[in-house]
Design goal:
Elements lengths: L16 H28 L5 H22 L45
Helix pairs in contact: 1-2
């Protein structure tokens, strides 16, 4: 019996490049929106106190965090491969047809490559 080749499953493929890019841009935009909100709170929330420092530090640190998260692609997460083996048994082959009995019938028989 020949060794069976492992076939990759569609479910184990990485995310499409366009979808990955859209996700990264969306994550960057959300982080920078939070930064803008922090700037607004820094200026408009009165009286000034310890939370003013928190808003200022967040506004200063969030660009770095946004860039790091935006540049972290899907290669940082591993996807588990799912088994491509069939989960149900294939049906039994149809009974053999005698070509002499039915001369007008064209019979096509397929076989797997590893059985040849």
């Amino acid at each position: 019996m020949k060794n069976k080749r492992q076939v990759p499953a569609v479910t184990s493929l990485p995310q499409a490049p366009r979808e990955e890019s859209d996700h990264r841009v969306r994550r960057y935009a959300i982080t920078m929106t939070i930064r803008i909100v922090c700037f607004g709170l820094l200026v408009f929330v009165q009286p000034y106190g310890w939370y003013t420092w928190v808003f200022g530090i967040a506004a200063a640190v969030l660009p770095y965090i946004a860039v790091v998260f935006a540049n972290a692609g899907s290669d940082s997460t591993e996807s588990a491969a799912e088994s491509p083996l069939p989960q149900i048994e294939s049906p039994a082959p149809p009974p053999a047809i005698d070509d002499d009995e039915h001369p007008g019938i064209l019979r096509i028989q397929e076989s797997r490559r590893d059985e040849e």
